[in-house]
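Dig into my protein:

:::
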Amino acid sequence: MIIGIIGAFDEEVEKFIEIFHLQKTESDLWDVYLGDYQDKHLVVCRSGIGKVNSGAMTQYLIDHYHVDLIINSGCAGSLLSKVKIMDVVLSSYVTYHDFQPTRIMEYSVPEQGKVSASTKLIHIAEDALKELEIQNYYIAPIASGDAFVTDEVMRDTIYQATGAYAVDMESASIGHICKLNHIPFLSIRTISDFADGNDDFEVIAAYKSSQLVKVMIEAL
């Protein structure tokens, strides 16, 4: 089995590199690390921030490494008050919050713009959460767009438009490309902030997501 793992920035991938003793490829263009763990081949990459970077990296993993599944691991902002910092959100589906008007997204993106994650991977992630004794998690939509969400008005507008529990800049494009290629995917995001420009706990949140992914890999 070949498992692809995508994080947007250094903090979202560095723990994987450390835990699995991964080695960087010689590519000057792609930031990709390889290794083996429990008879599984791991391809971990730092895509860079944003939809284009993450989408391009996703297609590269599929074309060049022939991955069997892709897990997007990292942190995200909460879009509603009940989803607290350090809570985990597993993507039920991913969508765009900046694809306007919505009616165009509905016929230009798979599944009318609500791209469903792998049910199997969601179940494996739930088992991993239980093993880690993490109780505060949600299986819910995640919205993505090329914008840092740092004020309450924008945050609330995104929630009202999408119903998503968390907002980031990569999940939707990764899910979009995976769905076009019939590759199972799941986005796992630990909440690092309230998408309001205040305190941010990216490093701790990214590490929590990586712990969860490690347990999932052991179960696959």
